Amino acid sequence: MDLEKQKRIEQRAYRFWEAEGQPHGRHEAHWHLAARQIESEEELSIPEKPKKKPSERAAAKSGRKKLKR
């Protein structure tokens, strides 16, 4: 895990701990919750490659550019 991601998890886990009234013995639960949330956010922020239109695929296969009319 990179240091930047670990720092974000630590900060979020700390906020969970504070929001719950700073309970003793819940650090692992807060850490796992923060890690899951950050993982989900990272998965959502990864852009997918745009899909080509059928005419663009055919032009790419033949090595030609599609002419715009």
Q: Main beta sheet, described? A: none
Q: How many beta-strand runs? A: 0
Distance between the termini: 50 Å
The domain tally reads: 1
- Helix vs. strand class: mainly alpha
Q: How would you sum up the global shape?
A: rod-shaped
Low-pLDDT runs of 5+ residues are: none
Count of alpha/pi helices: 3
Round the mean pLDDT to the nearest integer and report it: 83
Describe the 3D structure:
The chain is mainly alpha-helical and 69 residues long. The protein has one domain (3-62). It contains 3 helices and no strands. The chain has helices at residues 3-19, 27-45, 54-62. Helix 1 packs across helix 2. The chain is rod-shaped and about 65 Å long. The model has no long low-confidence stretch (mean pLDDT 83).
Summary keywords:
65% helix; mainly alpha; 69 residues
Describe how the helices and strands are arranged.
Layout (H helix, E strand, L loop, with lengths): L2 H17 L7 H19 L8 H9 L7
Helix pairs in contact: 1-2
Q: In a few lines, what is going on in this structure?
A:
With 69 residues, the chain is mostly helical.
